[in-house]
Amino acid sequence: MNLDLRQYSVRTDLAVESKELAETAHGGPVSGIHEEVEELDGIKITRLDVENEQVSRQIGRLVGHYVTLEVPALRSHDSDLQERVAAAFSKEFIAFLDKIGIGPGATMLIVGLGNWNVTPDALGPLVVENVIVTRHYFELAPDQVAPGYRKVSAVAPGVLGITGIESSEIVQGIVDRTKPDVIIAIDALASRSLERVNTTIQIADIGIHPGSGIGNKRKGLTKEILGVPCIAIGVPTVCYASTIVNNAFDLMKSHFNGENGNTQSNTKQIMGLLTDLSENERLGLVKEILEPLGHDLIVTPKEIDEFIEDIANVIASGLNISLHQAIDKDNVAAHTH
């Protein structure tokens, strides 16, 4: 059997994971990526700049800026931690806007992508429910708007299967009529790491593609398509079954290597040729077995119902603090529904 591995790749929407995969493949750091890592009180912040087209092709990420917040304890439903994450997110988002040249007076359109009927895909619509929208006040009673608020509108355009219209076409019509300066698009993502599912937030200035988290390649929300800068905010809520099986091989290999008295030769006796395969080759083998049976499922944790509400509130709170200077970051909960 000749296995064509070109059709297989490790499925991830996270820049930090793409960088890790590239470094593993190259056996060391990849040039053309500027990285800053900061740890603060259980929150790991990674700032990545993909600086040129060569490294963009190497890691499979567009040239641009990426910020990732990883919070392993975010699944614990700790309200104090959620407030700290919202504050950290708002600080990073303010710095991100400044870095890409978006000033405090820029008008924003927040787009909550996803299907509100499917829990792992409901992140975008839930964030839209909780952000503070002000555009109608500026339009109807501008003299009554308090200082410190900017013009913000929001929409959850649904998905193609519900509306029959591409999300990008709906957003394009809104952009043409309302003329926002910036679009903030929020969507669920996929991760290659079970540890990052439901614990990670990514900010990027490259736009977003509806359905990318489940492998749908359709017309996206980008500056090239919509004519205005598009910032993407995403949270991995799903993982492919093939990715989970592939990760299980790594965990078993590490476990057997770590056993007292075990050697690599012993591990090879247990796991056979699997120890010699690269990650992409192993993933290709797993997919070759699962896909004809229709079993390469998209998997989400059973706690997703509670988590999706929590993380949507975290992102909405962070956006409210970031976009409106009048919002007191110490009392932001009072401003969300």
TrEMBL record:
Propeptide: 1-13
Gene Ontology MF terms in the entry: metalloendopeptidase activity
Protein name, per record: Germination protease
InterPro entries: Pept_HybD-like_dom_sf, Peptidase_A25
Subunit structure of this chain's protein: Homotetramer.
Gene3D superfamilies: HybD-like
HAMAP family associated with the record: Germination_prot
SUPFAM superfamilies listed in its UniProt record: HybD-like
Pfam families for this protein: Peptidase_A25 (PF03418)
NCBIfam families: GPR
Function: Initiates the rapid degradation of small, acid-soluble proteins during spore germination.
GO-annotated biological processes: proteolysis; spore germination
Keywords per UniProt: Hydrolase, Protease, Zymogen
PTM remark: Autoproteolytically processed. The inactive tetrameric zymogen termed p46 autoprocesses to a smaller form termed p41, which is active only during spore germination.
EC number(s) from the headed UniProt entry: 3.4.24.78
Catalytic activity reported: Endopeptidase action with P4 Glu or Asp, P1 preferably Glu > Asp, P1' hydrophobic and P2' Ala
Family from the record: Belongs to the peptidase A25 family.
